[in-house]
Amino acid sequence: MNVLIVDDQRSARRILTSLLSSEEGLVLQEAASLEEARRVLAATPVDVALIDIRLDSDLRNRDGLTLVTEIRERTNAIPLVVSASSEMAEIRAAMRAGAYDYVLKDDLCEELVVPIVRSLRERRGMERELLQLRARLTPDGDGGLHGLVGASEAMARLRERIQRVVMSSRPVLVIGPTGSGKELVVRAIHALGPNASDPLLDLNCGAIPEALMESQLFGHERGAFTGAERRQDGYFTAVRHGTLFLDELAELPLALQSKLLRVLETGRFRRVGATAEEEFQGRVVAATHARLDERVEASQFRADLYHRLNVLTVRVPGLAEHREDIPALVALFSGQQSRPLRFTEGALAALSAYSWPGNVRELRNLIDRLAVFSDESPVSEATVSAYLETEAAPATEQGLRALVRAVLQTPAANKLEAIEEALISEAMALAGGNKSAAARLLGISRKAVERRLARDDGGASAGDADPPDQENEGDGANGSAR
Fold first, then answer.
1. What's residue 470's pLDDT?
2. Within a 10 A sphere around the Cβ of 411, how many other Cβ atoms?
3. Which end of the chain is more exposed for a tag (fewer CB within 10 A), N or C?
4. What is the pTM of this model?
5. Phi, psi (degrees; rounded to nearest 5) at 50
């Protein structure tokens, strides 16, 4: 069990370290300030934190209370306050912030501190056993950890992250590239949570018109709008104590983002056309492949909602980040086909070497196609390579479009000139300064390259040493006669 001791006084940290050092199975870490503690918490999964309220010589300092609050909101660690102050107001403030217990420094002794830490260690062990039991009892395909295939370090981290966030009732933000398996992660969070028997309802925020989305989420009263002939429950009501999965969250209209934020902050909502509020008893899990921080900067997503959601974040890795799991995924998808599929070692090597811009979804789709259109058994490397080549063309187009979007977001005044200058410069570098070779890479004439180089350096560009070629002098790939 990882224990973090946070105190600005080195002597106090030494006393606590000495008291706990005899306990087996404890990994002790120290921090002298709020910022230092934050760094440890960001890098290491902490189970118990022993925190002094004042982390400075200034008597007005209350950084310890800030840390207790942050730990309760953002981690699964259990905060225990160890302070020199015996003021009741301070003790109450610590307990309101979420402290598990309060111990005075004057009372520090092995007989007092060690039993508390032992009980917390037992509690942590029971929580882990419960999670493991739930994982074993969850059938394959029902959303448990069985659906997250792979023995790689990246998948191990993902499973651990899921096991930690299910112990909290706060909203969860699942991020990751398209096709990486975010929906599987959401189903695992629901299946391993305390209310797995309640509904898991999913709503695609980009698939429903804004006019209907509010009614879908909150429900409406009879007569609230034209066509509302009866009172109807929304997802916030129907989910009961279960999980509301908001897919493609970045596409949620701004007007509804503010209403969602209010539900997350107050736990209450109002139907369309209603005056009375109702209580939301479930949990929100949102997913997106978009960069919400970039959407915030572009004023397309509310900053306050982003910061409210970006507390318990689960990042799903792209398939390129855990290529070692590809054989296991191939075996899984092959076993789901109507006829068994086998692959040669060379075929598996080709699959493992591919970049998979479409991630796990692209791999699954490829296996589906092979099962229908290939009669080989086992499937050869040549066949796999042929199918991957057909996959690569749209992937290249997607990459080009992504590059164009990135260029359009640059601060350059003339973006066309900026990208043209970059292309010319890169082509000249790849061609070793040879204008004819650079022109062939760019698909334009040597004269066109020279004109652009002359324009970029104010007309001072001199010809290079390579011999003139016989290309036409037009700007097109094949030139044009004059």
1. 40
2. 6
3. C
4. 0.58
5. -100, 115
